[in-house]
Amino acid sequence: MIPVASLDDPRVAAYRWVAQPERLLDDGLFAVEGRLVVPRLLAVSAEPGRWFGAAVSVLLSPAAYERMQAVIDAYATVPSYVAPQHVIDELVGFNMHRGCLALALRPPVPRIDSFNLSDTRVAVVLEGVNNPDNVGGIFRSAAAFDAGLVMLGPACADPLYRKSVRTSMGAALEVPYVSSGEWPAALDRLRGQDFEVAALTTDNAAVPIDRYRPKKPRVALLAGAEGPGLSDSAFAHADVHVTIPMTGRVDSLNVATAVAIALYHLTVSQRP
């Protein structure tokens, strides 16, 4: 534990950019917050793999340090700074009521054409999902229902944006994700690897999710942004269109909710 008394301490200078993710991105960093998510960052940073050595430092209020001391001590190689709550608030520029922040190095994001898909049975593919809360919620559902990959297509929000990681409850640090690269050709890459691309839609003529039975051993669940939904070109590259029947009192579901329901049916309700 390293006490910090001043806003001018250079060791915590990078925390000034927590509210400016573009600046953190320029520095190759991202921020996570909360007493549940920061420990997950420290854990994956200590394990071999994509995130090894990613954690740069932790910034805590005295109250947060008291509650997290055992975790901090377990990962003592990562510097942990403790500052009064008002110093943290002035440093990051808003009321950080959780009193717990960490900075980490961004790992490279592989493209789908360089990712080994051999162990992936279910993938989630997103197009234009640009709301960080929705992206975070989708990662959380992917972890809950054992999807092996999230592929980010055009105009998707950053899964390492602070709100995305927080909403995902740290699942964005655990579920592998890749960029699509060329779109929608990336969908053909999945189809060539024996994935059936199933596009979610509100079209009542599509296959109801509870009746959907994949014809291939692997499924790529394709979802688009709320409002515009999937592009015509994405639909054209899908093998099947799937819908979640509703009462008619609403015309659509939140995309994160829709993906959660679809993943449940794909990975839980259809087990032998």
Question: Could you list some keywords that capture this structure?
Answer:
12 strands; single chain; 60s Ribosomal Protein L30, Chain: A; 7-stranded parallel sheet; 5-stranded mixed sheet; 272 residues; alpha/beta; 20% strand
What does this structure look like?
There is one protein chain. This protein folds into 2 domains: 104 residues, Ribosomal protein L30/S12 (60s Ribosomal Protein L30, Chain: A), CATH 3.30.1330.30; 158 residues, 3-Layer(aba) Sandwich (Alpha/beta knot). It is built from 9 helices and 12 strands. 31% of the residues lie in helices and 20% in strands. The strands form 2 sheets. Strands 8-7-6-11-9-12-10 form a 7-stranded parallel sheet, sandwiched between helices. The protein has a 5-stranded mixed sheet with strand order 1-4-3-5-2. It is elongated. The chain is of the alpha/beta class and 272 residues long.
